[in-house]
Amino acid sequence: MGQKTHPKAFRLGITENHISNWYARKLRYATMLRADGLIRQIINEIFTDTITLSNIEIFRGGSENSANSIGTIVIKALHPSAREVSKKVINTLLASEIKNKVSNFLHKKIATSNNSSSQKIRKLLSHFIKIKAREAVRKISLKLKQYFMIRFEFIKNPYEDSNLIAKIVGEQIKKRAPFRRVLRQSIKKASLAGLKGLKIELSGRLNGIDIARSEWKRHGKIPLHTLSAKIDYTSHFVSTVYGIIGIKVWVYRN
Predict the structure, then answer these.
(1) Are residues 28 and 145 both part of a single domain?
(2) Which residue, of 99, 132, 156, is where some domain finishes?
(3) 156, 171, 193 - which closes a domain
(4) At a CB cut-off of 8 Å and minimum separation 6, what does 254 contact?
(5) pTM of this prediction?
(6) Higher-scoring residue by pLDDT: 66, 48
(7) Using an 8 Å Cβ cutoff, are 239 and 224 in contact?
(8) 64 and 177 share a domain?
C-alpha cells in the first residue's frame, strides 16, 4: 500500500506557509476555522464569473476576542486580459445600460490591439473588480461581524501556478478535448515559461471510455523528497457528461 505525503503540507515552515495566518485558543479554533471556510465560499461565489481565482489567503491581526480587529484577505488570481473581459465580465455587469455600452465598445475594439483600447478595457475591469470587492467585504462583515480588507495579487503567466494550470486543463477536458493533446499542449506552454519541472495527472473515464484509468505526463524534474525544493501542488476535479475527472498538478519553480 502506497503511503503518500501532501507536497505542501510536507514543506510547511520551510518553503511553504499556511493559507490562513491567525492564532486561536482551543474553544475558539473551530469557530474561526468555519469562518475561514465561509470567507472562501463567499469570495468564490462573487468572483467566479469575473476573474479566474488561484488562491485565497486570510490574515487576522489583533487578539482573538477583539471584534474591532481588521483582517486582510489576499486574493491571488490570473491577470485579466481583454479576451477574459469579453467572455466573463460582460455577463456579470450590474447595470444593463453599462452592459450595452461595454459590449458595443468591446465588439468594436477587441479585434484591434491598440494601446488606447486595451487601457480602456483595463480601466473598466478594475472598476468592476472594485465593485465586487466592496460587495464581498460587505457580505463578509455582515456574516462574521468583523471587517476585512481585500488585496489582489495578479499572476501574469497562468502556467506558473498549479491552480491555474489545473483550471485551464479542466476547462479543456470539459469541452471534450482529447486529453493527450491537452497534456501535450500544457507541458509545451509550461516549458516556455521557464519552469524547472511540471507534472500533470488525469484520472477517471478519460475520453469517455468504460473503465477509469490514470494518465500523466511530466516535463523536467519533480524532486518530491527534497524539502528545500519549492513544489507547488494542487488537486482539482471537473464534472463531465461521462463522470468526474480528477486533475493533479505538480509545479517545480526556481
Answers:
(1) yes
(2) 156
(3) 156
(4) 194, 196, 230
(5) 0.81
(6) 48
(7) no
(8) no
